[in-house]
C-alpha cells in the first residue's frame, strides 16, 4: 500500500483505523502491485455526504466517485462511475450510450447490488466490478475522472476510500477484464451535452448468455458459480498460473526484498498441520525439539571445508550494528550443522549419551542468485532440521531411512503427492557427508522433477572436525556417527503445483486449513435469520467430529461470491444450505476435487463428510500417482532420452554406477545440447530458475530387474543399477 499520511487531515480524527488486509479489493490491488492509498473515514451513504465529510487533499485535482447501478430489461446492468460534480441524467444517459431500441434504465435494488457487485447500498465504487464474476455488469466511466490526479473509490465499504491514479484504475480494470465505456458527463449546471469517446461508444444489447471469461478454457458452471478470478490457466502459462493461485488463494503476499515472501495464514496453517504430524512421528523415534541461535561465526561455519565449499556465495553476513562495523562479520544460518555440533561435542561424553537425536524448526537464509519462486526457491525459508549422533554406522543408517520415510509419508499421506525415494549420486549428494537419500516428486505440466526432502548419513566427517567423540563400553574413545535431514516449506509449493487447477487451489483434506465451509444461501426471500440456527447445528455436528469447519455467514458477500472464494482457496467440501434444505433437513455437499454435488440428510452428514474427506484424500494421491506413472518411462538407448524429456517424462535408465560423475556430467551436457538444438536456441541464462538439461534425481531404492548384459545408457559399460533422470527445479 502507498503512504496515505496525506489523507489523515481529511479523514475524521475520531475514525478508528481499519485493517484492510483481508479486503478483496485491496488484496487484488496488492496482488497486481497497483499503488493505492486506502484510508478510513466517517461512513458516508451518498456522494454528497462524502464530499462534505471527506475533503480531498488535492482539492479539485482529486475526486470521489458517484456510483449508480442501472438495470434495464433489454440492456442489462450498467454501473456508472462519475465525478461527484457530474450530472447523471437517466434519460440523457440512454441517449449518450446510444442504447439500441427502447431503453428503460432504472436504479437497481440493494439485492442486485449485493449479488452483482458484492456491495451494500452506499458502498459501491468503480473498483467493485472485480466482484462481478459473471461479467454481466457494464462499466461506464466518466472521462472527467481520468483527468484527475487521483480517483477515490470505496473498497466495498462506505467508511473507507481507496485513492489511486486514473492510469492505475484503468490498469486494474484491464487486469480484471473490464473494458469501460468512457463518457464525458456534463458538470452540474453545465449546458453542453456529454460526448462519448470510447472506441465502443454504444452499449450493445445484453447478450443471451453472460460473456465468457477471457480465458476460454475456464469452466462455466451454474449461474453464480463461474470462477473468473484466475487470469491464467495451468496449461497456458504455468508460471503465471502458479503466481495467480498462491496470491489469490491468500497463501502468499509479495514483499519488497527479492526472494522473500509473506506466508499468510492460509499457507502457514498448512505448514502447522505438517509440523503437528511430523512432531508426533519424530517423538516416536525419540527425537526431541530444541532451538539453536541463528547466527554463526566465520570460524565455525568454515570449520568443515567440504561442507561450505560451493555454498559460500549463498551465505548472508551481518556486518554492522547501526552505523558501526561489527568486530567480525557473523553469518545467518544457511543450515545448522556448524552451530549445533560444537554443543554435541560438549554433551556427548559416554556411549550412554548416545544416540542424541535433536530436531529444530527454524528459518534459514540462502542468498540464491537464480530466479526465485515462492515456496520452491526462496532466500529465506522455513524448515525442520534433524541432527543426530549414534554409536555405529548402522544405527545412523537406520535413522537416515526412518527420517526419509517420514518425508515420503508427508508427501504421500498428507500432501497426496507421490514420491520416488532413493540415493543421490556422488555428484549430487551433500558433499559434507557419506551419502544422501532423497524423495523426488514430479510436477505435472512443467514435466519437471523436484527434490522433496533429503536425509544424509554424515559418516564421521563432522565428528572429526568438531571432536564429537565418546567412551565406548570398553573405555575406548570413538568418533560418533551422524545424520542430518531436512524438510522445508517447499512442500507447500509442490502440493499447489500438483493439485491446483484453473479455478485455484485444490487442497488435500489432511492439510486443508478448513476442510468444510458452510454457505447459507441467503436471498431477499430467505434472510440469514431463517437459516442461521440450522447452519449452527450443522457446524456443531462437524466440529464435534473434529472436522476443520467454518460457517461463512458474512453479509457483505453473496453466496456466488463465497462459492468462488472458497473454491479458489481449495476448501475440499462446501456445504450449501438453502430454504429447501432447511425444510427437508438436508444440505447440498459440493466437492472441490472432482466437482461432485450431492444432497445429504442432516443425520448422515458428519459421517458422510468424514468419509468423503478420506475418499478425496486417497483419490487425489491416486490421480497424482497415475499421472506421475504415465510420465515415468524406462529408456535403454540414448536416442530415446531427450525425446522423452521433451514429452515431459522422467526417465529411468540403466547406469554404470553412482560414482561415475564424468558420465553424469556427459548426460547433462549432451541433453542440454540436444534440447537446445531442438529448440533452435544457443544457450541458457545463468540466472534461469530451470534448465533444459537432465540431472540425476536418484538411484531409486526400489529397482526394476536389471537383465544380465544391460549396458549403461551413457558409457556403454555394464550397468549396475537403474537411475532416474529428469529436468528439475
Ligand atoms: C548453503 C550455504 C551454506 C545447503 C547451504 O540438507 C551451507 C549449505 O550445508 C549447506 N546449502 N547445505 C546442505 C545442507 C545439509 C543438510 N542440513 C540439515 C540438509 C538437511 C538439514
From TrEMBL:
Domain Aminoacyl-transfer RNA synthetases class-II family profile residue range list: 268-508
GO molecular-function term, one example from the UniProt record: ATP binding
The protein's Enzyme Commission number: 6.1.1.15
SMART domains xref list: ProRS-C_1
Transmembrane segments: none
Gene3D superfamilies per the UniProt record, alphabetical: Anticodon-binding domain, Bira Bifunctional Protein, Domain 2, C-terminal domain of ProRS, YbaK/aminoacyl-tRNA synthetase-associated domain
UniProt-recorded name of the protein: proline--tRNA ligase
Amino acid at each position: 500500500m502507498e503512504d496515505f499520511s496525506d489523507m489523515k487531515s481529511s479523514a475524521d480524527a475520531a475514525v478508528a483505523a481499519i485493517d484492510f488486509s483481508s479486503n478483496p479489493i485491496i488484496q487484488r490491488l496488492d496482488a497486481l502491485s497497483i499503488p493505492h492509498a486506502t484510508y478510513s473515514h466517517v461512513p458516508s451513504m451518498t456522494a454528497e455526504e462524502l464530499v462534505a465529510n471527506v475533503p480531498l487533499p488535492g482539492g479539485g485535482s482529486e475526486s470521489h466517485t458517484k456510483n449508480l447501478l442501472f438495470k434495464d430489461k433489454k440492456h442489462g446492468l450498467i454501473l456508472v462511475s462519475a465525478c461527484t460534480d457530474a450530472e447523471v441524467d437517466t434519460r440523457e444517459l440512454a441517449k449518450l450510450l446510444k442504447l439500441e431500441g427502447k431503453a428503460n434504465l432504472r436504479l437497481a435494488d440493494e439485492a442486485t447490488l449485493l449479488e452483482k457487485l458484492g456491495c451494500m447500498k452506499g458502498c459501491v465504487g468503480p473498483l467493485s466490478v472485480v466482484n462481478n464474476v459473471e461479467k454481466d455488469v457494464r462499466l461506464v466511466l466518466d472521462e472527467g475522472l481520468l483527468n484527475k490526479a487521483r480517483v477515490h473509490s470505496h473498497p466495498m465499504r462506505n467508511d473507507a476510500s481507496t485513492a489511486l491514479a486514473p492510469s492505475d484504475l484503468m490498469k486494474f480494470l484491464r487486469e480484471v477484464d473490464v473494458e469501460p465505456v468512457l463518457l464525458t458527463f456534463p458538470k452540474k449546471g453545465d449546458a453542453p451535452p456529454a460526448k462519448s469517446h470510447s472506441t465502443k461508444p454504444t452499449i450493445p444489447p445484453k447478450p443471451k448468455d453472460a460473456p465468457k471469461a477471457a480465458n476460454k478454457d475456464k469452466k462455466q458452471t451454474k449461474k453464480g458459480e463461474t470462477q473468473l478470478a484466475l487470469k491464467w490457466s495451468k496449461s497456458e502459462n504455468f508460471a503465471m498460473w502458479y503466481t495467480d493461485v498462491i496470491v489469490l488463494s491468500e497463501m502468499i503476499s509479495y514483499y519488497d526484498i527479492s526472494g522473500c515472501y509473506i506466508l499468510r495464514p492460509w499457507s502457514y496453517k498448512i505448514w502447522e498441520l505438517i509440523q503437528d504430524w511430523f512432531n508426533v512421528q519424530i517423538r516416536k523415534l525419540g527425537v526431541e525439539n530444541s532451538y539453536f541461535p541463528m547466527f554463526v561465526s566465520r570460524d565455525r561455519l568454515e570449520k568443515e571445508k567440504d561442507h561450505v565449499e560451493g555454498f559460500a556465495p549463498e551465505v548472508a553476513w551481518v556486518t554492522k550494528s547501526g552505523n558501526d562495523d561489527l568486530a567480525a562479520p557473523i553469518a545467518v544460518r544457511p543450515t545448522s550443522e556448524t552451530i549445533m555440533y560444537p554443543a554435541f561435542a560438549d554433551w556427548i561424553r559416554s556411549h550412554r549419551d548416545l544416540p542424541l537425536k535433536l530436531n529444530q524448526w527454524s528459518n534459514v537464509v540462502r542468498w540464491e542468485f537464480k530466479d526465485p519462486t515462492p515456496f520452491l526457491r526462496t532466500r529465506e525459508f522455513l524448515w525442520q532440521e534433524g541432527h543426530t549422533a549414534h554409536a555405529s554406522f548402522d544405527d545412523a543408517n537406520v535413522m537416515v531411512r526412518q527420517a526419509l520415510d517420514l518425508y515420503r509419508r508427508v508427501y504421500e499421506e498428507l500432501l497426496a503427492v507421490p514420491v520416488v525415494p532413493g540415493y543421490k549420486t556422488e555428484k549430487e549428494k551433500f558433499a559434507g557427508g557419506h551419502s544422501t537419500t532423497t524423495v523426488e516428486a514430479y510436477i505435472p505440466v512443467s514435466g519437471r522433477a523436484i527434490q522433496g526432502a533429503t536425509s544424509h548419513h554424515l559418516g564421521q566427517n563432522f565428528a572429526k572436525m568438531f571432536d564429537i567423540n565418546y567412551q565406548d563400553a570398553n573405555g575406548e574413545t570413538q568418533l560418533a556417527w551422524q545424520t542430518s535431514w531436512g524438510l522445508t516449506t517447499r512442500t507447500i509449493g509442490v502440493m499447489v503445483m500438483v493439485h491446483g487447477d484453473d479455478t485455484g487451489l485444490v487442497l488435500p483434506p489432511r492439510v486443508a486449513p478448513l476442510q468444510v465451509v458452510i454457505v447459507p444461501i441467503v436471498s431477499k426471500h430467505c434472510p440469514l435469520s431463517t437459516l442461521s440456527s440450522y447452519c449452527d447445528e450443522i457446524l456443531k455436528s462437524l466440529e464435534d467430529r473434529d472436522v476443520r469447519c467454518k460457517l461463512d455467514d458474512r453479509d457483505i458477500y453473496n453466496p456466488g461470491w463465497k462459492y468462488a472464494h472458497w473454491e479458489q482457496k481449495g476448501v475440499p467440501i462446501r456445504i450449501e444450505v438453502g430454504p429447501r434444505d432447511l425444510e427437508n433437513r438436508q444440505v447440498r455437499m459440493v466437492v472441490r476435487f472432482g466437482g461432485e454435488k450431492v444432497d445429504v440428510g442432516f443425520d448422515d452428514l458428519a459421517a458422510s463428510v468424514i468419509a468423503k474427506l478420506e475418499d478425496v484424500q486417497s483419490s487425489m494421491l491416486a490421480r497424482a500417482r497415475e499421472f506421475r506413472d504415465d510420465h515415468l518411462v524406462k529408456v535403454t538407448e540414448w536416442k530415446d532420452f531427450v525425446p522423452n524429456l521433451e514429452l515431459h517424462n522422467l526417465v529411468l535408465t540403466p547406469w554404470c554406477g553412482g560414482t561415475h560423475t564424468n558420465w553424469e556430467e556427459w548426460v547433462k551436457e549432451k541433453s542440454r545440447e540436444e534440447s537446445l538444438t531442438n529448440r533452435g536456441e544457443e544457450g541458457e541464462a545463468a540466472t534461469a530458475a530451470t534448465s533444459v538439461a537432465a540431472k540425476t534425481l536418484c538411484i531409486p531404492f526400489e529397482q526394476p530387474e536389471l537383465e544380465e548384459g544391460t549396458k549403461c545408457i551413457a558409457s556403454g559399460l555394464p550397468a549396475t543399477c537403474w537411475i532416474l533422470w529428469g529436468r528439475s527445479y
